[in-house]
Design goal:
Layout (H helix, E strand, L loop, with lengths): L2 E2 L19 H12 L3 E2 L6 E2 L1 E5 L5 E5 L8 H10 L7 E5 L10 H7 L3 H9 L3 E5 L6 H5 L4 E5 L10 H8 L4 E5 L5 E4 L6
Parallel strand pairs: 1-5, 4-7, 6-7, 6-8, 8-9
Antiparallel strand pairs: 2-3, 4-5, 9-10
Helix pairs in contact: 2-4
Amino acid sequence: MGCVSWRTMKISKSMPTVDAGTDFRAVITRARQAASIESRRAQDGRLCRRVVIILPSREIALQECQPSGSANKEMIEGVEKILPSGSPSNVIAIAFTDLKASSNTREVSQAMPFLGFLLGFAYIGHNVVAFEGHSSALAEGLAEADLLLADARMIPFLQKDWRDVAFTVMRTPKVFVHQPNGQVQQIVRNAAQ
């Protein structure tokens, strides 16, 4: 399981086929470790964090944030309102991750329309991992998470009790769904499904 970059993708209308034979616990552990590290950019040597994306093949891809100290105040304040940076939290995203190799952030944001939120969370110090939410990995992927941001376009392909799973296994469950119109809706535990 190596690291790959991004490539042009076509968004599917179904759950991606995943490598269910892979030990997902090992994959998510590795992804969380990679998400917690601030590394030096090869181009200029400045420190940056990253969003880690688990592909259906169970390879790990990295999407770099902008370098530390380069974000504007408004961006930082916007993500701080959702999840303050006081101590690192584990953020998990459920999104379309059936992507190929290339590093074009614009293409990644087509598949993950809330990529800006994820990069913002990582930039302010949170550990951010995205995966597709397949039933073979859902509970393990959500375990230890403090915030879940799910793409509404993926919800129809998740197991029916995904909300119950989230509120049961997450460390401190804050669950949000990103709607196609760009709105973010918070989900509460006892809301009608």
